[in-house]
Amino acid sequence: MDFGDKKAEKIVLVVNEKGLHLKPAQNIVNVASKFQSHILLGRDGQMVDAKSTLGLLALGAPKGTRLRIEAFGEDAAEAINALAGLFERAFGETGEES
To answer: Which of 10, 18, 21, 43 is catalytic?
Structure first.
């Protein structure tokens, strides 16, 4: 696959209390799927497709985990910014949710 020569990447921190569980993973997939770019997310050399809920859950990323987001394609920078925003807002979760 040819994604062009546009690439963007960013390191994000998992700040929500429960880490990267099902709901945040689904949020990532929903946002990532809006972009044409090929988007990867991972840590420790394990990169997964950011458009795959199961792949994201397999990362096992608790609170405090640093993750790398990489995007390749014409809208790579926009994709990175949108996904980083989810992490910065803790996926809209608060410490009081069950």
So the answer is: 21
